[in-house]
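If your schedule permits, I should be very grateful for your opinion on a structural question. Kindly check, if you would, that the fold set down in the tokens agrees with what the sequence suggests. Thank you for your consideration; the sequence and its tokens are set out here:
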Amino acid sequence: MSLEGRYDEAIPPLAADAGQIQQVVMNLIMNASEALTAHTGKVVISTGVRDLQPGDLSVRQPTGEPLPPGRYVTLEVHDDGVGMDEALLSRIFEPFFTTKSTGRGLGLAATQGIVRGHRGGLRVVSAPGAGTTFTLLFPASAEGLDERRIATTASPRDLVLVVDDEESVREVINSVLEAAGFDTLVAADGNSAVQLFRDNGAAIGLVLLDLSMPGLSGERTFEELRRLDSTVRVLLSSGYSEAEATRRFVGRGLAGFIQKPYRPEQLVDAVRRALRD
């Protein structure tokens, strides 16, 4: 594999979280490199500036809405790998969809969440045998970096404790929520979650809890959390249907339920509702 950079040195600054932008670049490079056949081929990264005119719908926000007109910093990652058909393209941003045969995985859901949090846009062009091009647009800042948090709607109690035994799922959830302006803590099992809540419960506004975990189950974890704080808000997550997953929680004060698999925007909306209600 060869990696080529084509960088515009005259790009304006943008108000962004440097760590999250770095994560976006790394996610796209990793996915591009995995799409190359037998480790041969080229990945090209380029940056530039684009003045988006009214009515230009070529690049949209992750929500599907048009981007507002204005100046944007562009990031493009192209590979000449195996490419994707329309069916695969329609699923690449799902947090729980992955296929190593094409190299498109969970990192793309995090990438979409970060772009959304920065009020940017993205476009993916691909075809089988013709490679793939990711184009990302971030609003340019005439004033340089500011100190505000990107897309923040958080309050002092918007610290979310994410509990899931699958590392890849935790990483995606963490990235999506942080891009939306939430602070997070992560736990790989029920016992760790209980300890984190014991240490930080006063600051935690919501626990996003996976139902099916080895060791201390989701139900048992819920009970232990309630012993520590009877008012704790718990958003239950499961691949089972809502009726099946929540039947043992009826009348016990769940703050909400979200069924796997879900899209980044569905996760953010569910968390916001659970915190608000």
The chain has two domains: 2-139, 159-276. Residues 37 and 249 are 49 Å apart (CA to CA).
